[in-house]
Amino acid sequence: MDNLEESYCLFERTVNAFEILNQEELQKFYALFKPVNFSRKSVLTESGSTEKYLYFVVEGVQRIVFQDDLGHEATILFTYQGNFGGILDSMLTGRATQYTYETLTKSILLRANINEVRALGKIYPAIHNLLFEGLLYAFSGLLERLVEIQCYSAEEKFRILLKRSPHILQIVPQKYLANYIGIDATNFSKFLNTVKL
């Protein structure tokens, strides 16, 4: 995206999909967000820190990842153009997170200080309602993911991923997609060549 007007249009489309804010509320909400640029593999929020921002993705791909003491990684979530992002549990509780939010590609984001977002939500209840609806949507998605991880085979998880987000192969490197659905990168590659969707 080349300019702030295009960023605003993308932000407006995403927010208006919830059908909660009027134009004044949308503009007040948007005014909290400032553009920031990050290079590939930049850490937005580090494990052990507290999430200070609500992000909106204009360009690029990011992920939330957990890493254990032995260096094993589990990709929890991807964000990309038109998504809000940030580490929700830390944002809501104010506690340090065990996850890292990082860019996978060069990224252009808008970010708002979460305390300013909360304060605006007290003045404009519709903004508070928007945040609540967004959280419900995110929670619903996480419950679906939990079922997928616990109940489905590797091939079924692969099919579900590509059915839900067919564009994801074009924007997220395969090794991260394999990690996200909990399969070996070699098996992911085999599924690409053998599974008919």
Automatic annotation (TrEMBL):
InterPro entries: cNMP-bd_dom, cNMP-bd_dom_sf, RmlC-like_jellyroll. It comes from Flectobacillus rivi. Signal peptide: none annotated. SUPFAM superfamilies: cAMP-binding domain-like. It holds the Pfam family cNMP_binding. Residues 17-86 form the Cyclic nucleotide-binding domain. This is Cyclic nucleotide-binding domain-containing protein. Gene3D superfamilies: Jelly Rolls (2.60.120.10).
